[in-house]
Design goal:
The structure holds two protein chains of two kinds.
Chain A: H1 7-26, H2 29-33, E1 37-39, E2 43-44, H3 45-65, H4 70-97, H5 110-116, H6 122-145, H7 148-166, H8 168-175, H9 181-187, H10 195-226, H11 229-281, H12 290-304, H13 316-335, H14 343-362, H15 367-370, E3 383-384, E4 387-388, H16 392-415, H17 417-427, H18 429-434, H19 439-465, H20 475-488, H21 493-509, H22 517-531, H23 540-560
Antiparallel strand pairs in A: 1-2, 3-4
Helix pairs in contact in A: 1-3, 1-4, 3-4, 3-6, 4-6, 7-10, 11-16, 11-19, 11-20, 11-21, 12-13, 12-14, 12-19, 13-19, 16-17, 16-19, 17-19, 20-21, 20-22
Chain B: E1 4-13, E2 16-26, E3 31-36, H1 42-49, E4 57-62, E5 65-66, H2 72-78, E6 80-83, H3 95-102, H4 109-122, H5 124-128, H6 139-151, E7 157-161, H7 169-184, E8 188-193, H8 196-202, E9 205-210, E10 213-219, H9 220-225, H10 227-232
Parallel strand pairs in B: 3-8, 3-9, 6-7, 7-8
Antiparallel strand pairs in B: 1-2, 1-4, 4-5, 9-10
């Protein structure tokens, strides 16, 4: 097969990248992200957003055509990059012709024009942009052409360096107490990492990966094989122990703000683990999952509140099991009417159930009990042995304990008979029934146990915030939890953790993202479904499913060869 | 007393009178075939026996015990196993996991291991492919798997719904041979088939079902000679 550059396709892809860059600019993302520098005084997050498009497209056009010769490949990358700049150029010219364009396109502000034109006039800036994007496209193509054993590490190195740059604020917060000031000043600029740091990181990571590929992997393997099974076991135990210690000291390293972010992630992990039982294990699509979170939160709120609505003034630790039990009951009760429903119908009914709970919480009907829109206030902080859990760092341990419990229960259930029943149910309800599986019991247990985890998360949530309001329990939470399961990998426990870190943790760290969170979710979900439908950390069954699809096509190849 | 007795069963789908008083018996150790065209009520009869569908009238007894009081999922532990139509294997699970699923309600590990070996003896093909995902196997292999999985529950009565459906003639022969073998080892079989030719060849007795009624019943040999059966189901003029 002759590798050939498809010029029409190259131009089309280039233009597409340009259109993406222009739309990101016109929704205000580029400007908003420009506040944060990735590499101080070199380029900002907004520019990163703009410039990844031509580089990726440059890589993609030559990859698609499998062009391995330097000349055509670099030329293709250049063309793609230049055409990616065209839509931006067009936007700039448009602002020149219609100076009042902002009346229609509100986000096309002078600041944005400044970013797109590198602070020059529109024409000069546009030409500059074309040149920069052309070069980036060329560089993208170049990465594909150079041998894979260097090209791939380079991509990873670039990715990690940029990630460090994007998260520099977080890293600075962590490192500030640990390193002397002079070192910090060398590593971090005013709004990002310094150019020197970026270069050092890129070289270190890239050479590190190259070394690992060429030598390190073999050596590590040889060392592992040389060890006795006992030694291997101790090694595993040691790394497990180190991981646990790290988890325990994490809040001390992270400080208040970051621990709060981690707490949030933890609550989402708890909910994710619960919904994972319902959706991932048993295959029942539940879109009203937030309902149980709300029920858990309101139970603790009403039972412990010192305010007017408080009933019983119980301690948190007494209210907690009651909240979990209430949520479990609610989960099973919801299960009863939807026993005969499948797929889309089930999703719609559960969606309705979630909304009913939220509307009830807001309603005047229940206002005397749970406060309507005013919510439940003055929920006391939990006390344990005379110690009050107040700080995010304290709550971290409560949440950590909950997550550990949930992971333990999930993994035990998955491997138990009930887990098998859920698996059968997910695969084929009719066959499962024909094989003697009690559908009603199996489904209700999935709904109940799933709801229990969510109720636990809700209970902790209520105590952590001290007050709860109905608007905290909207549909978006259900969608977030479902998305993180899908991104992480359906039915996979580590997948839930990874999904929560990516979908909940990252946007919290990058506050600029908050406004574009749903856009990010949408883009990420689409990208995942296209490139890695089994999730970031899939369960063995899902992974096998994909491998199986490949095997089906394999025999034909055998016949040819 | 017969192993299975179905007496005057009426079943409905909404307003459609699908079974109009079906009566049949299956003796211990027999293979009984239920033949008939599309929509005759063959599958409905099987679903009624296995509890997946609740008939409006009539009695179904296993060794004299009323089966209608049990739900579908309880029947497996009563010794009634079903091989569903269209094979119905768990497509994303491996062969071995499918087989384990069949014995999921049992807790005698040794017994399960023994039955697993027996299934692999019956279907050596399954042992070769025990790590493979069931959905990627051929139709014939899936039928073997569905049958093997039903055997894992150690049934006294095996209900089979159209085991020949969509299979190549060679595979149909193989499957029916295994059915005979399973029967020789002591499992009673009630077989529903459109392929009347094969079904009557291995059966002791047969019933002919038409639009929800049994129109003929006899030994399999006499049914094969019957002019009406020959014309309608065996394609002999």
């Amino acid at each position: 097969m002759m590798a050939q550059l498809d010029v029409r396709n190259t131009i089309r892809m280039g233009l597409l990248a340009g259109v993406v860059a222009v739309s990101l600019s016109m929704i205000g993302m580029v400007e908003a992200f420009d506040q944060r520098d990735v590499i101080t005084d070199v380029f900002s997050l907004g520019q990163l957003l703009l410039f990844t498009a031509p580089a990726i497209v440059g890589y993609m056009v030559v990859q698609r055509g499998k062009v391995k010769a330097y000349g055509p490949a670099l030329f293709g990358g250049l063309i793609a990059g230049v055409f990616a700049a065209l839509p931006i150029f067009a936007l700039l010219i448009l602002t020149l012709i219609f100076p009042n364009i902002r009346a229609q396109l509100v986000n096309v502000s002078p600041t944005l024009i400044g970013i797109l034109a590198f602070g020059n006039g529109q024409v000069v800036g546009g030409l500059l942009m074309t040149a920069v994007m052309g070069i980036l496209g060329l560089l993208g193509a170049a990465i594909y052409v150079i041998p894979d054993r260097i090209g791939n590490p380079l991509i990873l190195g670039l990715g990690w360096t940029l990630l460090v740059g994007v998260l520099s604020e977080v890293l600075l917060n962590i490192l500030r107490p640990l390193l002397p000031r002079a070192v910090l000043r060398f590593l971090f600029g005013t709004k990002g990492i310094t150019f020197a740091t970026a270069v050092i990181l890129l070289i270190l990571i890239t050479t590190g990966i190259v070394w690992w590929q060429e030598k390190g992997r073999e050596q590590a393997k040889a060392r592992r094989e040389a060890m006795s099974s006992g030694q291997q076991k101790t090694r595993r135990q040691v790394s497990l122990g180190m991981g646990l210690i790290l988890l325990f000291v994490l809040p001390l390293i992270l400080g208040t703000y970051l621990t709060e972010v981690v707490d949030n992630v933890g609550l989402y992990i708890l909910m994710g683990l619960g919904l994972n039982i319902v959706v991932g294990f048993a295959g029942l699509l539940d879109l009203g999952y937030v309902a149980f979170f709300a029920i858990g939160a309101y139970t603790v709120g009403v039972l412990t509140s010192q305010g007017g609505l408080g009933v019983g003034h119980l301690s948190f630790w007494v209210a907690l099991p009651i909240a979990v039990a209430t949520s479990t009951m609610a989960g099973m009760l919801l299960g009863v009417p939807v026993l005969r429903m499948r797929g889309d119908y089930l999703a719609i009914v559960t969606l309705g159930f979630g909304e009913i709970i939220r509307v009830l919480a807001t309603s005047d009907l229940l206002k005397p009990v749970i406060g309507g829109a005013q919510g439940v206030l003055q929920i006391p902080k939990p006390e344990i042995f005379g110690f009050t859990v107040i700080q995010p760092q304290h709550f971290y341990y409560v949440i950590l304990a909950g997550v550990f419990l949930a992971i333990f229960l999930s993994s035990r259930l998955r491997d138990a008979r009930l887990g098998r029943q859920w698996m059968a149910l997910r695969e084929d309800e009719d066959v499962a029934e024909a094989m003697g599986i009690h559908l009603v019991k199996t489904k209700l247990l999935a709904f109940g146990i799933g709801a229990a985890f969510s109720g636990l998360a809700g209970a902790i949530f209520a105590a952590r915030l001290s007050s709860i309001f109905p608007h905290s329990f909207n549909l978006l939470i259900s969608i977030n939890v479902l998305s993180l399961i899908i991104v992480g990998g359906m039915g996979s426990l580590p997948g839930v953790v990874v999904g929560a870190l990516v979908l909940v943790g990252l946007p919290e760290l990058l506050r600029e993202f908050a406004e574009y969170r749903l856009l990010l979710y949408g883009a990420l979900l689409i990208a995942m479904m296209v490139t890695k439908p089994e999730g970031l950390w899939p369960s063995p069954v899902r992974r096998r499913e994909l491998r199986a699809a490949e095997e089906e096509t394999a025999p034909q190849i055998e016949q040819v060869g | 007393m017969a192993l299975l007795e179905v007496d005057n069963v009426h079943a409905y789908y909404g307003n459609i009178h699908a079974l109009k008083g079906i009566s049949l018996t299956v003796e211990e150790g027999e293979i009984v075939s239920l033949i008939g065209g599309n929509g005759a009520g063959k599958t409905t009869t099987l679903r009624s026996i296995s509890g997946l569908l609740s008939p409006r009238e009539g009695t179904i007894t296993l060794r004299g015990e009323d089966l209608r009081q049990y739900k579908a999922h309880q029947l497996v532990s009563k010794g009634v196993a079903m091989v569903p139509e269209g094979r119905g294997v768990f497509a994303r699970l491996t062969v071995e996991e499918n087989l384990q699923m069949g014995a999921y309600h049992r807790s005698d590990r040794d017994g399960i291991a023994k039955d697993m070996r027996r299934v692999y003896q019956l279907f050596p093909r399954l042992e070769e492919r025990k790590g493979q995902v069931a959905g990627t196997m051929s139709g014939g292999e899936q039928q073997m798997l569905a049958t093997g999985r039903a055997m894992m529950s150690r049934p006294t009565l095996l209900l089979m719904d159209e085991p020949s459906m969509g299979l190549a003639p060679v595979l149909v022969e193989a499957i029916f041979q295994t059915i005979e073998e399973i029967n020789k080892e002591g499992t009673t079989i009630l077989l529903v088939e459109q392929n009347a030719h094969m079904a009557l060849q291995i059966a002791n007795r047969g019933y002919v079902l038409q639009t929800g009624e049994i129109v003929l019943q006899d030994s399999a040999k006499s049914l094969q000679q019957n002019a009406m059966v020959q014309k309608a189901y065996l394609g002999i003029d």
